[in-house]
Amino acid sequence: MINITQKEFNQLASYIKANYGIYLKDEKQALVTGRLYNVLLQNGFNDFSEYYQYILTDKTGEAVATLINKITTNHTFFMREADHFFYFRDRILPSITGQNRDKDLRIWSAGCSSGEEPYTLAMLLDEYLGKEKILWDSKILATDISTKVLEEASKGIYSGEKIETLPEYWKLHYFKKDLEDNYILTDRIKNEVIYRKFNLMEEVFPFKRKFHVIFCRNVMIYFDAATKRELVNRFYDCLEHGGYLFIGHSESLNRDETRFKYIMPAVYRKE
Fold first, then answer.
1. Distance of alpha carbon 218 from alpha carbon 151, whole angstroms
2. Right CATH number for 82-269 from 3.40.50.80, 3.40.50.150, 1.20.1640.10, 3.30.310.80?
3. pTM score, two decimals?
């Protein structure tokens, strides 16, 4: 077994935090060792110092991509924190669509993981807009730093267990079964989501237009207070006035430090 020393862990943790904002506490040493052990074996590294140098010198980007895929936890499911989706459908959509002459909806699912969140939003939009859907530009931007989950999400294939929380109408209307009893999203819904690799720690967010809604749920739990505060400020600047930010129920914003107005648990608005 190749164990990680405190110095090696500090090097790796500092690199990850500086480049991806993820804060790894000392108690995560065993987790990091376990998830990266096979990577070291497969590449013939004797210790984590050699592995760290490999990350720094690799020009292909594959080393960093593997590192991020290994250390990030991508646990999600359809209709997670369902009250958010109901509020989005019942309160936000009527407001945005009623005042939107350009007929465009700009929604960003940041930290989209394996796609359940953006696809849920796409199905909500399809159901809400109905026959008028064809008149709207309502594609959803979905981003993540993990290439592995982005590839999985773009396929739109889920087990029966994964979609059991969805309404029966959606299962029949938006999915089809394959020979292995998996459920495949229809192209009509898959094509409504644009997947991109994106690091939330980028100094400049390259978006030409501001969003009406940003979902960034259960992502900032991995960041320290300063990183979280800076990211929330960027989200604020990326939103239209009257736009909404959704975060996870296990997360919260310091009302004395944010420009957002609190609406309900884990929902904030740009005034």
1. 20
2. 3.40.50.150
3. 0.82
